[in-house]
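thought: fold this chain, then report.
action: predict
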Amino acid sequence: MANLATATSPSAKLESYGTVERPASNSSFPLNDPSVGWVVRSGKLDLFLAGQRDGKPEGARRPLFRIEQNLAVFGVTPADSLMLIAQPAPGTTLVQLSTEDVGKMALGGDETAMLLIENWVNSLAAAVAGGEQPPALSESLDAGETLHVGEEPKSVTARHHLAWISHLQGSSRLMGNEAFRISNGILFPLSKHVWLTSDPQSEILAVAPKTVPAIDPAWHGLETFGRMAMQLLVERVRRAIELDRERVRARAITDNALLQQTMRRLASPIQKIRGIVEGQDACSHPVFLADRKSVV
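observation:
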C-alpha cells in the first residue's frame, strides 16, 4: 500500500466533498470534533496539547507532531482539562471535510480516503506510545485473519501499518490498561505502534479496510480510539509533570547540600584563626605572660 505522504495529491477529489480553507499562520484552531477532519493541501500543521476552558485553548502548549502535505488530521474528544490544537505554517491551505465524506469517498472506490485515516491513526498512536514498543512476543494481525486467544492473555498488534479489528468473542485492553477496554461492537483501528492485551478465549477478526465505512458508517471505532488516545496522552503529560517536579525537588536538595558544604569550607579558616586567638588569650605560661607585659 502506497504511503499517502508520497502519493499523488488527492486535493482535486477532496474539494468536491470538502471546503478549502486558508487559515492565518499566527492562529490556531481546536481539533475537538471527531466528525470533522482537515487535509493539508499545502504547507503543514503542527499539533499541540493545550489547556482548555469552555472549549477554547489556554495556557502552555506541549508539542506532539507535525502533519505534512497530503496528510490529514481529525478531531478528537478533549480529555479532562486538555485538548488538541493545530497551528498552521505560513501559506498553509486546508480542505475541511467530515468523516461521513471520507466514508463516501472510500465506498466510491477512492483508496486515498482510508489512507488519510490510516496515517492519522498511526501518527496519533506513535505519540501515545512515546517510543514504547509492543511486547516482543505479540501476535500480529492483518486483514482477513482471525486470532484465537488461548488460556493465557495475549498481546496483539497490527502486522503492517493498521488493522481494523472486531471482537467476535471476549475483549481486550489498549496497552494493557483496564480503563481502555475494547469488546464486541467496536471496529477498532489498531496501529502498529500500540497493542492490545487480549483476554483468554477471545476471538478477534481483522476486516478489510475498504469494508470499514459500510460496517461502521458513523466511525464509532475511530472516535473511540481518539478518545482513548487523548486520555493516554493526558496521563503521559501528568507523569512528565510529576517527573519534572521530582527533578526540581532533587536539584533543590542537592543545591542546598552543596551550599552547606561550601559555607563550611569558607568558615573553616575563620574558625581556625578564632581558635588560635582564643588559645592565645587563654595561655597561662609564665614566659608568654611576661612577654605580653613587656609589650604593654
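thought: worth noting. Confidence is low (pLDDT under 50) at residues 1-8.
final: C-alpha cells above.
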